[in-house]
From TrEMBL:
<dbReference type="InterPro" id="IPR003593">
    <property type="entry name" value="AAA+_ATPase"/>
</dbReference>
<keyword id="KW-1278">Translocase</keyword>
<dbReference type="InterPro" id="IPR027417">
    <property type="entry name" value="P-loop_NTPase"/>
</dbReference>
<keyword id="KW-0067">ATP-binding</keyword>
<dbReference type="InterPro" id="IPR003439">
    <property type="entry name" value="ABC_transporter-like_ATP-bd"/>
</dbReference>
<keyword id="KW-1003">Cell membrane</keyword>
<dbReference type="GO" id="GO:0016887">
    <property type="term" value="F:ATP hydrolysis activity"/>
</dbReference>
<dbReference type="GO" id="GO:0043190">
    <property type="term" value="C:ATP-binding cassette (ABC) transporter complex"/>
</dbReference>
<protein>
    <submittedName>
        <fullName>ABC-type cobalt transport system, ATPase component</fullName>
    </submittedName>
</protein>
<comment type="similarity">
    <text>Belongs to the ABC transporter superfamily.</text>
</comment>
<dbReference type="InterPro" id="IPR050095">
    <property type="entry name" value="ECF_ABC_transporter_ATP-bd"/>
</dbReference>
<keyword id="KW-0472">Membrane</keyword>
<dbReference type="Pfam" id="PF00005">
    <property type="entry name" value="ABC_tran"/>
</dbReference>
<dbReference type="GO" id="GO:0042626">
    <property type="term" value="F:ATPase-coupled transmembrane transporter activity"/>
</dbReference>
<dbReference type="GO" id="GO:0005524">
    <property type="term" value="F:ATP binding"/>
</dbReference>
<dbReference type="InterPro" id="IPR015856">
    <property type="entry name" value="ABC_transpr_CbiO/EcfA_su"/>
</dbReference>
<keyword id="KW-0547">Nucleotide-binding</keyword>
Amino acid sequence: MSEYLLEFQDIYYSYPMATAPTLQGLSLRLPKYKKTALIGQNGCGKSTMFLIADGLVKPDRGVVTLDNLPLSFDRAALKRWRQRVGLVFQDPEQQLVAPTVAADISYGLYNQGLSEAKVAAKVTQTLSDFNLKNLAMSPLQHLSLGQKKRVSIAGVMALKPDLLLLDEPTAYLDPVQTRNLLTELESIAKLGTTLLIATHDLDFVYQWADWVLVMERGRLIAEGETITVFTQLQSMPDFALGMPILWQMWSRFADKMPSVPAPRSIDEFTTYLEKYRFKN
Ligand SMILES: Nc1ncnc2c1ncn2[C@@H]1O[C@H](COP(=O)(O)OP(=O)(O)OP(=O)(O)O)[C@@H](O)[C@H]1O
């Protein structure tokens, strides 16, 4: 079995009426069971990549595979594909369709053709997993944005996908809601779901991701383990995304320290400083 779950091979895509293709030979591989971040400037094609990965948009050229099985657009194949790949949109309003939380979570399960009893059992389990039991019968329009975001992730996770794609999951969330969301994502990853998050938040990427994919103008320009990719990006002066704050702070001390791996959290950074500051 391949160590990669999702692969894009030389994908091209142009939106109708667009003057230039949005994806221009995009090739990438997503390692199984890793927490991967997809970064790149506005308009480089991250959301378009997600729409293709979920079978919502058909590429003009190229091959997309999941566990080496090519994406096909016939109804039955697409339904099976979407059971394995879940997409959470940046804006929960785009995702939520039913009048209440419980009804929304049941929507995708009914679409899978499950019996009423099975749907009810899965909805109960999902409400409990996502700490949504007290909101089960709440109308969606009464929820905060953070709660809506949780419901949209819960609705997708109820289908137990192998791959969860999240487009800017922390957009619009306050720090507490962001922390809660990250805890939920951590448990989703621990259960064996491969996660791909598109984001502009490089501080989050630096601390969260095992693997990073970098896009520019519809193509992949870098991929690899988080530290390796940021090391590469540092030597690309034309790449205008900036660098994570922890990385920038570390760069000021790194040459005064023994050769140790760059710290991935404030705690690690502080430990290094405590350990080595008197020796330099
Ligand atoms: N429905 C559409 N019709 C025409 N062009 C579109 C459409 N959706 C996106 N585009 C164009 O495709 C390009 C890539 O957009 P996409 O949303 O995939 O980028 P992105 O990397 O996700 O951007 P951002 O970081 O701003 O969310 C942009 O130039 C955008 O204007």
